[in-house]
Amino acid sequence: MLKSIGREINRLKISAIIALALGIVISIAVTVYWSHSMEFLFKIEMWEMGTEWVVFLLPLFVSIPFCYEFFFEVKDGFLKNVCNRTHIKKYLQIKYFSGAICSFVTVFLILFTSLIVALYLLDINFISTNMTNVDFVFATFRNYHPLLYGTLLSLWTALVGVIFFTMTYFLALVTSNIFIALTGAFVYFIVENFVLAILSVPEFRLVSTVDPTSVTSFTPLTGLVGVALASFCLIALILFSRKKEIL
Question: Model-level pTM?
Answer without folding.
Answer: 0.90
